[in-house]
Amino acid sequence: MPSSQRIPSWLRKLFVVLLLVPAVLWLGAMGWLWRQQERLLFAPEVLAQDHAFTQADTQEEWVNVPGARLHALHLRQPLINGQRHTKGIVFYLHGNAGNVATWYTNYDFWHRSGYDLFMLDYRGFGKSSGHIENEAQLHDDVMRAWRQIEPEYAGLKHVIFGRSLGTGLAARLATQVHSDLLVLVSPYQSIEAMATARYPWVPSAVLRYPMHTDEWLPQISSPIVMFHGDQDALIPIAHAQALQARQAAARLIRIEGAGHGDIQNHPDYTQALSRLLDSL
Hints:
By secondary structure, the chain is of the alpha/beta class. The model has no long low-confidence stretch (mean pLDDT 91). It has nine helices and twelve strands. Strands 2-3-8-6-9-10-11-12 form an eight-stranded mixed beta sheet, with helices on both faces. A two-stranded parallel ribbon has the order 1-7. The chain folds into two domains: 1-41; 45-278, Alpha/Beta hydrolase fold, catalytic domain (Rossmann fold), CATH 3.40.50.1820. A hairpin with a 2-residue loop joins strand 2 and strand 3. Helix content is 36%, strand content 21%.
């Protein structure tokens, strides 16, 4: 090639730099996402260890897990003539933010339900110690809490209840233990599906919390009922519809006008949930 037609070396270097810089920035961003997923996914609120819960018949309990101690609230139905009267246990796994104090909002509903309620705070939430490190650890903590509480309710009804983030944890637990009912409120297909919809440029291999509810639901033999608000902008109802397509036996109850954080305030939701629990 004549020298007059050769690409100058400085221009070739510029081309290389223009190709490398975006690649380096993208790799750096993926590395940051890999390390910061707990901060992006979880928004715990810490409670003082002397914070008092004043709801009647509600006790604070602890679950020891490797490297941490998890705090929980346990509502037990009151004694009648000195005898305990409860239909069973609702094992409640809450969403990705707050703590049991912010999620224990429907106390009157649960007190009237005739069921005991056990609500767990994850690592770093409320009074729980430790830090969430990976998805396997989350599932293991949930299982340890279940094994601690379940023997108390032998021969009674077992309801696994998940809300928002907790729906994936509840579904996974229901593949491993017996339950009479699995209730999923505002469920997602998977965290991976949600991330892909919002950030299509992020490869799935970077996600350390894929939470594949869509893979677990078909493995569950117990009755499954899902509640979802048709105005939910955070986890659209299409997620619940996709889950129902994967598990035809699952029932989906659509709550008109409900969003993501206010579904518990809708009478259609509380009335349907009450009838469901009464039917067991």
